[in-house]
Amino acid sequence: MSEVISSISVARQLHQHDLFYFTPSLLADLTGLDRRQTYRLIARLKAEGLVAEVEKGKFLLLGLQPERVLSNPLFIASHLVTPAYVSYWSALHFHGFTEQVPLTTFVATTRKKPPVTFRDFRFHFVILQPRKFFGYRREMIDDLPLLIADEAKAIVDSLDQPRYAGGVGEIAKALPMALEVVDVPILVEYANQMGNKSLGSRLGYLLEILGHSADGLIRSASPVKLDPAGPRSGRIYPRWQVVVNLPQSQLAAQEAG
């Protein structure tokens, strides 16, 4: 391919191949250019505002409407590592289960990756075991594709690692809204597939105080803290072996239901 390939045509090629996040070697494979030509092309793409360097040697495709990309942290997040999907607090907010807007975008992945800061955005990557990497789907925001946890998995991921979802108190507030669109058997199925008995106990307790049966849900045989970040003390809810270590004010709305 000629070295004088136009920047716009390359940007369109990247978009057509869903290559929103790329390295110089990937771009070289796509265009057929050698190393020197590839870096010259990247310099032109950056100068024309078609791409931005997010990490050293890793570039984000901005395309012909960069403001759409630069205002969309969920889209950026889901392309910073592969495989990955947006989850935890970020997914709870996306699905409308919480009004709290997290300052960090949380991403589930099976690969180790350090946090990334790009412009005003912060991205945190949570490593999942392969068996836990399920329950996500493709969504479009402003015609930009991203992968994000579905409604049930957003809840289950959050209860698996509550520190990435604002804590169990925040998840407890989100659960009643989630139950308007999510069937309890799906939550039970997802929780069991995760293989975390502590997660099962937390979910079972929260479902039960909302008046829902959680039959078939795997639970812990020994006491587990409702909020892993909270104190060890608290009343024990024996059926689910949960130490209720949150202030009643954080659970009052749920228990009233």
Task: Walk me through the structure.
- With 257 residues, this protein is an alpha+beta fold.
- The chain has two domains: 7-64, Orthogonal Bundle (Arc Repressor Mutant, subunit A); 73-256, no CATH class.
- It has eleven helices and twelve strands.
- It has a four-stranded mixed β-sheet.
- α6 runs antiparallel to α7, α7 (151-160) packs antiparallel against α8 (168-178) and α8 runs parallel beside α11 (248-256).
- The longest helix is centred in the N-terminal third of the chain and has 13 residues, at 35-47.
- The chain is elongated, with a radius of gyration of 22 Å.
Task: Please give a quick description of this structure.
This protein is α+β, with helices and mostly antiparallel strands.
Helix content: 25-40%
Q: Distance N terminus to C terminus?
A: 66 Å
Q: What strand order characterises the main sheet?
A: 4-5-7-6
Residue stretches low in confidence (pLDDT < 50, at least 5 long) are none
In N-to-C order, the SSE pattern is HEHHEEHHEHEEEEEHHHHEEEH
Shape category? elongated
Largest sheet: 4 strands, mixed
Residues in β-strands, percent: 15-25%
Structural class computed from helices and strand pairing: alpha+beta
Mean pLDDT: 93
In total, how many beta strands? 12
C-alpha Rg, in Å?
22 Å
